[in-house]
Amino acid sequence: MEKAQAGTRGRNGNGERAERSAQRDPERTRASILAAATKEFAENGMGGARVDAIAERAGINKRMLYHYFGDKEQLYLAVLEEAYIGIRTAEKSINLSDLEPEEGIAELAMFTWRYFLEHPEFLSLLGTENLHRARWLRQSTRLQELHSQLMGKLSELLDRGRAKGIFREDVDPLHLYLTVAALGYFYLSNQYTLSTIFGRDLAERASLEGWERHIVHVTLASIRR
């Protein structure tokens, strides 16, 4: 009986310490919850993800999770927003305005492909949200501004290319980005079935590097005069 009581006191003590730590460093706690939730939603989707599992991954109790994010749906939306903010923020490192038009397009294509490779959880979240027809993503107001900035930079790059007589006049910046994203997304989201069907390991390094070159070639060929 005393051991049981001691164990209970220990568990309660750990929980209290975790809660005090969360209160002292709310930004770190929020980041921990988002990281844990990203893994849980990427692995199990919106329907299969469990709040208990997220709290356990983050090392907090559910009460703290609800305090920061309200409920499971709000947490899922926050995860989606952070995922998109991550890729849009990383894209800024390319400095498209400082590059020649064709070089800028090539760099964006390679960046997007490599980002997809390094962040498989991003592709999983995209798949989940598309199954729900962007039900939660449509609720976000933060993402519209991020994507309009990307389209603005692509438009400026295309304008410079047109002025130099390199790119066609009718290229839509959205179509350009969809070409880049589709070539990367389809390959990675279907790599296991395609590898099995065609008898080639699409996940091996040589295959991945070859596909990166193909993405750049196809993208540039599609917009040249």
Describe the protein in words:
It holds the Pfam family TetR_C_29. With 225 residues, the protein is mainly α. Helices cover 79% and strands 0% of the residues. The chain has eleven helices and no strands. The chain has helices spanning 2-24, 26-48, 51-58, 62-69, 72-91, 101-118, 120-131, 142-163, 173-189, 191-198, 205-223.
Radius of gyration: 22 Å
Total number of β-strand segments? Answer: 0
Structural class: mainly alpha
- What global shape is seen? globular
The first-to-last residue Cα distance is 82 Å
Helical segment count: 11
Strand content: under 5%
- Please tell me the overall pLDDT: 90
Report helical residue fraction: over 70%
Low-pLDDT sequence parts: 1-14
Profile the largest sheet.
Answer: none
SSE sequence, one letter per element: HHHHHHHHHHH
InterPro entries: Homeodomain-like_sf, HTH-type_TetR-like_transc_reg, HTH_TetR, NicS_C, Tet_transcr_reg_TetR-rel_C_sf
Keywords: DNA-binding
DNA-binding region: 50-69
Protein name: TetR/AcrR family transcriptional regulator
